[in-house]
Amino acid sequence: MHRFRTCAARLRPLTASQAAQTAGQQRPITAAPSGGARTFQPIRCFSAPVASEPFLNGTSSNYVEEMYFAWLEDPKSVHKSWDVFFRNANAGAPPGSAYQSPLGLASSLASNQLSSLVGAQPNVEKLVEDHLAVQSLIRAYQIRGHHVAQLDPLGIMDADLDSCVPTDIITSSDKLGFYGLEESDLEKVFRLPTTTFIGGSESALPLKEIIRRLEMAYCQHIGVEFMFINDLEQCQWIRQKFETPDVMKFTLEDKRTLLARMVRSTRFEEFLQKKWSAEKRFGLEGCESLIPALKTIIDYSSENGVENVIMGMPHRGRLNVLANVIRKELEQIFCQFDSKLEAADEGSGDVKYHLGMYHRRINRVTDRNITLSLVANPSHLEAVDPVVQGKTKAEQFYCGDNDGKRVMSILLHGDAAFAGQGIVYETFHLSDLPSYTTHGTVHVVVNNQIGFTTDPRMARSSPYPTDVARVVNAPIFHVNADDPEAVIYVCKVAAEWRATFHKDVVVDLVCYRRMGHNEMDEPMFTQPLMYKQIKKQKPVLLKYAEKLIAEGAVSRQEYEEEIAKYDKICEEAYARSKDEKILHIKHWLDSPWPGFFTLDGQPKSMTCASTGLTEENLHHIGQVASSVPVEDFTIHGGQSRILKARAEMVRNRTVDWALAEYMAFGSLLKEGIHIRLSGQDVERGTFSHRHHVLHDQNVDKRICIPMNHLSPDQAPYTVCNSSLSEYGVLGFELGFAMASPNALILWEAQFGDFHNTAQCIIDQFICPGQAKWVRQNGIVLLLPHGMEGMGPEHSSARPERFLQMCNDDPDVMPLIVFTPKSLLRHPEARASFDQMLPGTHFQRLIPDEGPVSQRPEDVRRLIFCTGKVYYELTKERRSRGLDATVAIARIEQLSPFPFDLVKAESERFCNADLVWCQEEHKNQGYYDYVKPRIRTTIQRAKPVWYAGRGPAAAPATGNKNTHLVELRRFLDTAFDLEAFRDQV
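-> structure tokens emitted (984 positions)
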């Protein structure tokens, strides 16, 4: 017999006196007081059995089952008398003989009389074993019934990639032997445990009926995976939803609504195919039930109070979702197929099935307002997942929805991408983190059972494409997409699960793809057998309509009228679409910023006001930054020294990098601007410089964020250490920044080059977002950068990549800040309050105001640079005694390039050679970007010499001595004119 682990297996044994006092009582699992270790109390106290009660005379079968399984795991987990009873009963002793009272047990054990109790009475032994076997059988269906569910509409594939039937699932009478049961037992009545709802109002059923009801619950068109969830309440909730007899009932109105939605889903695709047969549209044919599925989730979520739904999805079915779920005007979709359509602005850089949408409308089922957003996304199918989650989190934050009751997300996935792309796993792992949770996402997988041309048996190692969701204990509902009523039911349950438990849930729509990867593709090349069957497959709308007509739910005339009505809607919209000559991207914005843009879609102002602060304000923020504004709070001794050093700087009217950051953040918070800083170890700072979150050294989890104690009416400051993810977290923060332009959202990499693993978000969303979707985004990337001999993985933030992606549009603000590492504590990397007072502005270029400014005509060399190399250059200049003849200018904003300021500096030192100096290798860094721009500025009147490391494949050396040799070489070059001339 299979041994299933139960809670009882972990219970502590009781003494005879304890058992006598607590017999039959229930004790819940309880946690220890805060700060203590968690302890588990028994669910049921396993007292000694009473002679007249074991199994036959009133003892609950659940009570016995719990003890029996506990005993199988550990005989010491039950009272000794039960241990003796089970040993003897399993050996064949009748209850009267198998039982021994606790009082007589000790002498019995002492005299070694146990063996004399074993007498053969097979009828009693079978009675015990049969009841336990039936309970094991029920559990087997709950765990593994989905493996034999009829999920594939084509009837040719096993959704779990395994044609074997689990041994413990009863598919024929000869399987009864696995449980020690016989065919004659099928008519016997067995008591049902409380861990099943198949009985409805009945507490016992014949074995034949038990098996039938289990098959109906778990082995038809719905397969339920949930028994891995370690929460009894959640498991019981799911059991009730699927096991209760006749639970899947639909009213006449429900069926007619479902049919109408199926008509819209199907006829929309057929209309597009008729009008644009030679166009790619990535249609939904083969999974038309997706549309009513999504509408059901939204309907039930709206009923439960949700006002805002944010969605992300790949390209398949996107146009259909836009048309029939979000209800975008059909003419706006149809005009996208017109090749003569002209773009009114630059937001025409992506195809129609990548565009997003934002729409507020009335939900006709609930008569409540609901806002629907479909986030624009690239062909990196799952890259949009964390973006959607971040946007959802932001919308929840700004409307005060702390529990996710008003704002929710729905994510659609393809089966191959869901299993194959790591960003899915990263996104799931954000789902329950306090600073990232959206309080439950409904995931819908359009399971084509194929990935482009790749057979699923070659595309994944897991049984199902959805197995990644098990990592967060999300229930998974597999459903045959050709059974619309089953689809609607599981979507209803999914919406209710999310509303009840605020945790993720997955709906796996097992379907097929009637066309190829797109409408121009030939799938028979690689899947001949599948597509032979698909060609024979009756469309799901036709099958469902015939079913309802046979039931009398609708007449054939009503069905045909519904089709004609929607066809007319499409034709009228098609006629209107002919009037659209220009594409206005305003119709395709997924995150509008009301009041931020002018009528032509541009920001109202791109000028930067003064960023200065009053002396009083600077001192106030500085005092908060150097204090612990909470009583009886013990901080680390090292932090005490840091705070004292900050206080000393404030007294001296000086700031270093960390304090300057504090000043910037604090001043924005006091102005009501929300700030969110996210990334790995950002609370303390990777280099132990920030310390925005203080931890009490004596009380676990007690923290203090001084920046949230600036003023009573300040905006909140959110600073959160992220999971060890770059791709997922940067996508999340990008999505958060989409929600509002009036916030500062920052993501910091531990080291600059760690953004390599988030490159997809940068390449697909941040850099081209304006051109593709007119999506402006205020995300700021903080990338620690600097060549310090720490090796290629801890040196370069690869600035050349960002510069290559810039288009030098003067209306594009900088998003990337290459933050220092060694400069965090550099004695010269300081600034005075005087540079931060009212009237001061961000300096795009910092000119040299030292001795060279006295006689600029005598300066023989003007070195342009950026970043920390400036401090190495000034040190070298000082050591060579060249302070009056070599000028060093810092370009603080590389893109858009400060042509005007570079020109002014070049003209000031009119007799000087021009040098660009960088510590990065020549084929990296800034040189290829700045050289042509400097030459354009000076009208190519002079050459622009290069001083820096030579070309290399890796960003930096990991050898300290090599690093120093390279540093010395390029510093010599920077101050040696002959070295420049050798380059010619």
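The chain is about 35% helix and 10% strand.
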